[in-house]
Amino acid sequence: MKKRYVLLLLIQFFSVLLFSQTGPGGVGSRNGSSSLIVWLRANDLNADGNISNNPTNGSLVSTWSDFSGNTNNFTQTGTNRPSYNSSGTFDAVNFNSSLAAAQFMSGSTAGIFPNASTFIAINPVNTGNSHTLLDHSSASLRVEQWFNTNRVGLTRYGVSDYSTSITSPFNINSIISYHKPTGSSIVEVRVNGATQNLNIGSTTAGIPLDRIGRNSNGADEASGDFFEIIFFNSRVNDAQKIIIDNYLSAKFGNINIPINVYDEDNAGAGNYDHEVAGIGRVDASNLHNDSQGTGIVRISNPTNLGNNEFFMWGHDNGALQMNTGLNAPSVIKNRLTRTWRVSETNTSGGAIDVGSIDMRFDLTGITGVSSGNLRLLVDTDNDGNFNDETPISGSVSLGSNIYSFNGISSISNNRRFTIGLAFTTIITNRRITHRVNN
Predict the structure, then answer these.
(1) Which residues lie closer than 8 Å to 284 by C-beta, 6 or more apart?
(2) What phi-psi label fits residue 213: left (phi over 0), alpha (psi between -120 and 50 degrees) or beta?
């Protein structure tokens, strides 16, 4: 029995290291082992995980560092550099196509990918020219096609401009994504709430990655604020597509998307906009059941996840520190300031139940934690308070400051959760009981 227990702990520990889904929305990994090959975040320009050390507003950007773990950085020098824009609601790398010198950035990984997905969060500006998102010598992705068509599309140089009927989303915070599976000539284009398939006439043609923008004065330049660029060298499945859309939508101001399964980012729900991640299933071939993202919470192994069902979570950006005086049951000594909120819905917006789940918390940097005193707190009656709830014990230490609660079934749609540290009680003799603040 002891050997089996040790083996189980080892399996859980190595699964933490090998399979943690730490990419955008919890899709892909940030250690270079997954199909996530580029992840550029303007709010973390140097990709060090610290969003407080970005350049000053108006600084020229020489390097936009890759957060995917592959060091596929994008660089530029001299007058072709874009600038850093922190004057708006969201930090951005700004490309100004009205200047004399074309602003573009070249990546360290180049190519055309016939099996790929890319997501670009952007607020594009119309300066009267066609506007490029990503470019290669043989193709480009366009927020506006050639000759002011005001249509989103994909161009194969020397072959054709393939335009959707989707209007270019100028001056709007937008999510533009392209998805192409191997062996197909069809590219799915998604712009905010609109979706359209393009036949680009070749199964070997694909999605370009060489540059952001294009070195072409007067036309085809990048234009506007780029917030985030995500690139997978394998098409993400339909469930993952929905999860990443919801992650980006929550992060950048509740952008309209084709399928919204996370509404805790609304002001009325408390603006749980931060580090949104999720699990979900469209069907048996389009499944994502293990997710963490950039946050400290990892959720996996839903026991009743059905078709078109999703379980998404995000937090309120509260501090990652334990404090006294917060609303909590009397048996809790101190509670984490940060809270999370959950959307557990189907693609039609109805509340569902994905069954019990396993939850892991990476508590690196938080002192005084043990499996004996750690408690999960769930606001089961949805009144915004934890002081009337029963703390959940039974966490398991997996090492490296990671603790697991398995088989949790008390979290449902719109509910909040957090963690706390309990007073512990020891018996020193048969008559006297002491409460210890450990």
Answers:
(1) none
(2) left
Residue that has been written with the tokens 């209007």 in this structure:
167
Give residue 383's pLDDT: 97
Rounded CA separation 121/260 (Å): 16
Q: What CA dihedral angle connects 391, 392, 393 and 397, to 10 degrees?
A: -120
Split the chain (438 residues) into runs of 10 and give each run's mean pLDDT: 41 46 98 96 98 97 98 97 97 94 94 98 91 95 88 96 97 98 98 98 97 87 97 99 99 98 96 98 98 99 99 98 95 98 99 99 98 98 97 98 99 99 72 51
Angle 330-335-341 (CA atoms, 0-180°, nearest 5)?
110
Question: Dihedral, CA atoms, 250, 416, 374, 243, nearest 10 degrees?
Answer: -30
Which two tokens mark 419? 């963690």
* Tokens (6 digits) for 319: 């501090």
pTM as predicted: 0.93
CA 256, 260, 265, 266 torsion-angle sign = positive
Buried-exposed string 253-285: b where 16+ CB fall within 10 A, e elsewhere: ebbebbbbbbbbbeeebebbbbbbbbbbbbeee
* Centroid of chain to Cα 55: 23
- Tokens 């060090």 belong to 48
Question: Tokens for 360?
Answer: 């892991």
